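agent> Task received from the user: take the single chain below, predict its 3D structure, and emit structure tokens. No templates, no multimer pairing.
agent> Plan: (1) validate residues, (2) run structure prediction, (3) serialize to tokens, (4) report one or two observations.
agent> Step 1 OK, no nonstandard residues flagged.
tool_call: predict_structure(input=
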Amino acid sequence: MNEPPEAADVPAVDEREPATTIRVFLALAPPDDAKDELARALRPAYEAYPRLRWNRIEDWHITLAFLGEVPVTTIPVLMPPLADLAARRRPLRLALRGGGHFDERVLWSGIEGDVEGLHGLATDVRTLVGTCGVLLPDRPLRPHLTLARSRRGDHSAVAEVAAGLAAFSGRAWEAERLHLVGSNIGRGPGTIRYRDIEAWSFGHGT
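)
tool_result: status=success, residues=206
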């Protein structure tokens, strides 16, 4: 079959240039049973507020450093020093607790436990990333786990769900790995997806 003239110059999908940048961040992830515990507490909210843009449970994470869009060539530079950093750190004992929101737009669960250690880890991660040539905005860490986002013009649900989570207190768990995560945000329509580029187990500290 002959192609119409306007289609003849369009490359096939497998002939297109690969992406030269990738959107990444560094994070910790709660274990499955801790996430399941919070998901059970959220079940009434899932049913009552189906229009919220709920994050997938498998994507729940605690961001330590958001690098944004970086050249793909940066990733191999970051990986060895991040592996070394993880090996020098002890696992952090944390728990999910309560709920809150940012400007009635972003729903989150709070973090308790070794929060001082969490801040220290985030500082070390951000310093390391900077030495590898990735400039980060100077923003304080606000430890949280993002659960959902409101849709445009409909913000009341986020505050209501946050109030319902106020009494939630999850079990303690150990964050045992440092995750380098990539996302497909900004690469087309559809749900945001996250994937581990690499993850490193924490060691026993110094």
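agent> Step 4: summary for the user.
The longest strand covers residues 92-102.
agent> Done.
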